[in-house]
Write a structure and sequence with these properties.
Layout lengths: L3 E3 L3 E5 L3 E6 L7 H6 L1 E5 L3 E8 L4 E8 L5 H6 L11 E5 L3 H17 L19 E4 L3 E5 L3 E6 L6 H6 E6 L3 E7 L7 E6 L18 E3 L7 H16 L15 E2 L8 H16 L5 H12 L3
Antiparallel strand pairs: 1-2, 2-3, 3-4, 5-6, 6-7, 8-9, 9-10, 10-11, 11-15, 12-13, 13-14
Helix pairs in contact: 6-7
Length: 298
């Protein structure tokens, strides 16, 4: 097709076997779309294309992804708000005829492929690129492509998490992720471990589970935590051959005790502590005592 269709917040560029979605940068563009930047969507990753009436004199062109084709949508599990759906292109109503033409053209290409209505057996859309990190309410999560690390915040983490210490999970030790939007009451990111079936009991509440971080109060926003979850999920599904044993899942700092931290990590924790101090959630005495304790770890 080789054409370009510009809409509100995004532009679709059509190629013979895929389309490139470029998201605009601007204060009105949903932060998730801005964070994604652009995405290449192969035609084989789509199940259908629809055109419907939108709000306030608009029409919506929607490329419907196949189940299992996009790690971002798999991690989201239907929790994205309509305006954050990266497969929607909103256009002024006067461009409906043009939008209908592109919908028909793209739909024909999608249906010409095999298995469009079936679930994909592998991810066909590239995941967000790492390394990735974000601040949750009770800790900082980071992912370097091979392992996920959780470093607990002194002021947010539960005593259960402090007891086991900071955690590091090799991708090979995971079977998936569970993302619950920060827009709901119990928002969190939980790592699903392959050895969970052999451990006693079931995972507890996210605030007590050392394989989970919790959201809230501006921590773990969608545009940071969802791409993170998608990247981890894609790495897990990519076919890491070996499953790490329990002894490979070593706490970064078992029990919050021995081991020297990186200066950047100490600085990050002090900044977080300062934010809580300025907000009146930590007293002067608590702030000074904890700051001295962190500086002593350098």
């Amino acid at each position: 097709m080789g054409d370009v269709l510009a809409g509100i917040h995004a532009t679709w560029e059509f190629d013979s076997d895929s389309m490139l979605i470029r998201f605009e940068r601007g204060i009105r563009t949903p932060k998730l779309l801005t964070a994604l930047g652009e995405r290449r969507i192969p035609h084989e990753a789509l199940a259908d294309v629809t055109l419907t009436q939108g709000k306030r004199g608009t029409v919506v062109l929607h490329a419907v992804p196949r189940a299992g084709a996009d790690p971002l949508m798999e991690a989201a599990a239907g929790q994205l708000k309509e305006g954050c759906d990266p497969y929607r292109l909103v256009l002024p109503a006067e461009r409906e005829v043009l939008a209908e033409y592109y919908a028909d053209e793209l739909r024909a290409r999608v249906r010409a492929g095999t298995g469009a209505a079936e679930s994909a057996d592998r991810f066909l859309v590239a995941p967000p690129q790492g390394p990735l990190h974000f601040k949750a309410y009770d800790g900082k999560a980071s992912f370097d492509g091979t392992q996920v690390a959780f470093r607990w915040f002194w002021t947010g983490a539960s005593s259960a998490k402090w007891k086991v210490g900071d955690q590091s999970f090799p991708v090979a030790s995971l079977s998936g992720v569970e993302w619950r939007s920060p827009d709901v009451f119990d928002g969190h990111l939980r790592l699903l471990r392959r050895d969970a079936a052999t451990e006693e009991g079931k995972p507890g509440q996210p605030d007590q589970d050392p394989a989970a971080v919790v959201f809230g109060l501006g921590y773990g926003p969608v545009h940071e935590s969802l791409p993170f979850a998608a990247a981890v999920l894609a790495a897990v599904r990519s076919g890491v051959p070996a499953v790490a044993s329990e002894r490979d899942r070593i706490p970064v700092e078992a029990g919050g005790g021995a081991g020297r931290r990186e200066p950047a990590d100490i600085a990050e924790r002090i900044r977080h502590l300062g934010d809580l101090h300025r907000a009146g959630l930590v007293t002067d005495e608590e702030f000074n005592a904890k700051k001295a304790e962190l500086l002593a770890e350098l």
